[in-house]
Amino acid sequence: MENAPGLADVIRFVAAPATARTVALTFDDGPNPPDTVELLDLLAREQVPAVFCLVGVQVAAHPDLVRRIVDDGHVLANHSWRHDDLAQLSPDAVRADLQRTLDAIHAVVPDAPVPFFRAPFGHYGQAIVVAAELGMRTLDWQLAVEDWDPAPPADVLVERLGGIEPGGVVLLHDGGGDRSATVEAVRRVIPRLRADGWTFTVPRLDG
Ligand SMILES: [Zn+2]
């Protein structure tokens, strides 16, 4: 990228024909047992790939789950060390935060790529530029079902997931609280989407 990346460069849709019923599920704030474990079991059963946007302190607390996420073939994103609002920090502080998180991930899974950055709260400041300098592209979203606290029941989340657009990146959470409703909603929605002709994918760096 010749010029400094900005908001125009964040990923909200995967690279696919605009009409393709393709969707990318992303899960933030983990790893977080037991919800992440149940989610991984579900995604493995359904053979659905996803992006896991990891928080550094959670990585340090649950390295075995990070290994499983990678072993199961999912894609990693850096979601900061402890979910601070990076827009409030200087570029150097953002760099230190994201590098610390990368180091924690690579201490567990040295060979796993971390192609994406997801901003806590979707607040960017200088973080898009700093993430790019560290080799990560910023992953935004087309649809947020607002499964954070107070977490709505699964049937509400299922209804909101009806807002997925072709190629859309969907923001969900496996951490930050009790995410059993999210896992249940994903469990219900995968077969429905498949029946309607949707396929599941993950974003690419050039997407
Ligand atoms: Zn988050």
TrEMBL record:
Task: Read off the PROSITE patterns from this record.
Answer: NODB
Q: Which SUPFAM superfamilies match?
A: Glycoside hydrolase/deacetylase
Species name: Cellulomonas dongxiuzhuiae
Give the matching InterPro entries. Answer: Glyco_hydro/deAcase_b/a-brl (IPR011330), NODB_dom (IPR002509), Polysacc_deacetylase_ArnD (IPR050248)
Taxonomy, superkingdom: Bacteria
Q: What is this protein called?
A: Polysaccharide deacetylase family protein
What sections of the sequence does the record tag as coiled-coil? none
Q: Where is the NodB homology domain?
A: 21-201
